[in-house]
Amino acid sequence: MSKLSKKDLSPRERLFCYHCLQTGSPKEAALRAGYPLTDAENQGVLLMMKPEITAAMEEIAAAQAQRACLRDRVKEGLLRLAFDPCTDGVRLVREGDSLTSGELEGMNLYTLAQLKRTKDGLEAVFFDRFKALEKLYEICREEESASASENSFYAALRQSAQELEKPERHG
Question: For residues 53 and 17, is the Cβ–Cβ distance under 8 A?
Answer without folding.
Answer: yes
